[in-house]
Amino acid sequence: MKHGIRARVHSLYAPVVAVNAVYERYAAVRGVGFLDMLVLYEILADDEPYTQSRLCDVLGVSKTTLASVIRRLVDRGYIRLIPATTDARKKVIELTKHGTTAAHALIDPLFAMEEKAVRPISDADIRRMNAMIKCYSDGLSYQIDELGESNPDSD
Question: What global pTM score does this model have?
Answer without folding.
Answer: 0.85
